[in-house]
Amino acid sequence: MNSWVNSAEILGSDLPLELSGTGNRRALLMDALREAVRSGRLAPGTRLPPYRSLAADLGLARNTVADAYAELVAEGWLAARQGSGTRVAERAVPVTPVHRPRTPERAARPVHDLVQGQPDPSVFPRTAWLASARRALAAAPDDAFGPGDPHGRPELRRALAGYLARVRGVRAAPERIVLCSGAAHGLRLLAEVVGGPWAAEEYGLPFHRALLASHGVGTRPLGVDADGARVDGLTRRDRAVLLTPAHQFPTGGPLHPGRRAAVVDWARATGGLVVEDDYDGEFRYDRQPVGAVQGLDPEHVVLLGSVSKSLSPTLRIGWMVLPQRLVGPVVTAKGEREQFSSATEQLTLADFVGSGAYDRQVRRMRQRHRRRRDQLVAALERRAPHIRVTGIAAGLHAVLELPPGTERSVVRAAAWQGLAVEGLADYLHPGSEGAGQADAPRDGLVVGYATPAESAYPEALEALCRALPPG
Question: Which stretches of 147-292 are DSSP H helices?
Fold first, then answer.
């Protein structure tokens, strides 16, 4: 029978479950159940009949109904517990997209947040920060409370120069450092000073590309593979290239040593600029962090950094380590006075770095994030051994490699599990297809493991594993 319409009473009610159309009967049954839940005809918590009963009522094979139930459980539409049968999941309600309209699968109020990029706010070092604030205010010179210098407070620039040299291999005097309110602010200033066009890794933050575009700087994609960006695709026409060499965002690989040297050679030969986004360079778990590319050639590389991953994104403090020729133009573009970052917070951070508290916080967060990543890997090995974590052990997120063609359905299933998580496609440069340098788009899940509270993280991992496709 190629076309059919049947109905079955659910729990003795008069509510019909209608199956109509042609094709795979399991798929038709799943569509009908989804629609019944979506429309409200099957409310959360409603108990469904045993699969044997429903199979008999609909004239279907038992395995067809059993498989449909199992898949809808995996997608989060249904919930099954031994002894209580199969029920409509409590979370099975339509969700509203947030952050990006192109991903309607993301829940407006997720139970678990595995979106990348944010540390757990509960681990902010309040006591140590307060102690630094008190010392900084007590020692602050009078000019700290006057109009701000657009270079930033000299106390913080000196502290950062020493810290970045010691930890990231950066070569810079304090006079080369200009403070800003974060990496995005730094990019705005560089876009104004340098102009375009720029090259950028084919996977990266859409926000950064949109920010550059809003300042008249177009970007074109460079392919990304296991060795990082394919910098051999750079041309003389490119004014700058935006890279994440320590830990490619979001795919997770470091820039190969040969490519680090090659991008510096390109900059020297063409007068181009390498913009190094060092967004999580301090967080490497399998070895010591790789030094910054800036150390290879301070006159052709800008290093961008901030405290958004190590402390909190609410502290609007970032830095640019600039070639000497760009310091004046960037400060001019910034304005005559400091308008973006509080002088008292700059002084507090200077004390926080100088007292060693920042090192202690980074070590603490490194241990915490490494443990979180290990828990993620262990959960996958136990529940979904066919899913591979790609990239190096670093940062605040990991990418799960998914079978081709499954990314959107997995993001959708995650939303129905009450899980906020993003697909790799969200980060793909819109010009990547047909760009020559870019590979075919990959299917993957970008999982941020830093945000959930300690007590909630195991449950978040369970929800994640339930959303993954079967092996």
Answer: 154-168, 183-194, 206-214, 257-270
Say if residue 94's pLDDT is above 60.
no
List pLDDT tens digits, range 352-399: 999 999 999 999 999 999 999 999 999 999 999 999 999 999 999 999
Distance CA 30, CA 143 (A): 69
213 close to 238: Cβ distance less than 8 angstroms: no
Mention every residue, 6+ apart, whose C-beta is less than 8 A from residue 52. 62, 65
Sort 166 into a burial class: Cβ within 10 Å, 0-12 / 13-18 / 19+.
exposed
Q: Are 263 and 292 in contact (CB under 8 A)?
A: no
| Stretch (H or E) spanning 212 | helix 206-214
- Written as one letter, the residue type at 354 is G
pLDDT of residue 48: 84
Q: Within 13 Å of residue 87, how many CA atoms lie on the same side as its CB?
A: 13
For the cut 70, the answer to whether the pLDDT of residue 54 exceeds it is yes
**What is the C-alpha to C-alpha distance for residues 234 and 221, in angstroms, rounded to an integer?**
10
The answer to whether the CB of 419 falls within 8 A of the CB of 107 is: yes
Residue 163: closest CA among 359, 318, 364, 414: 359
Please count the other Cβ atoms lying within 10 Å of the Cβ belonging to residue 279.
21
For 92, half-sphere exposure in the C-beta direction (CA atoms, 13 angstrom radius) is 26
CA count, 13 A, side-chain hemisphere, 154: 5
pLDDT digits (tens, 9 = 90+) for 206-261: 999 999 999 899 999 999 999 999 999 999 999 999 999 999 999 999 999 999 99
Structure tokens at 156: 């913080």
pLDDT at site 348: 97
Distance separating alpha carbons of residues 116 and 132, to the nearest angstrom = 29
CB 32 within 8 A of CB 17: yes
For residues 350 and 155, the answer to whether their CB atoms sit within 8 Å is yes
CA distances to 182, 339, 460 from 455, rounded to whole Å, are 30, 39, 10
Three-state SS sequence of 3-35: CCCECCECCCCCCECCECCCCCHHHHHHHHHHH
Q: Is 65 in contact with 76 (CB distance < 8 Å)?
A: no
First to last CA, the chain: 31
Place of tokens 């301070």: 298
Tokens of 154: 């000299």
The CA–CA distances, whole Å, from 271 to 175, 238, 401, 454 equal 22, 10, 38, 48
Indicate whether 320 pLDDT > 90: yes
Phi-psi bin for 362: left (phi > 0), alpha (psi -120 to 50), beta? alpha
Please tell me the pTM assigned to this model: 0.76
- Write down the mean pLDDT value for the chain: 86
Give the span between the Cα atoms of 181 and 319, in whole angstroms: 8
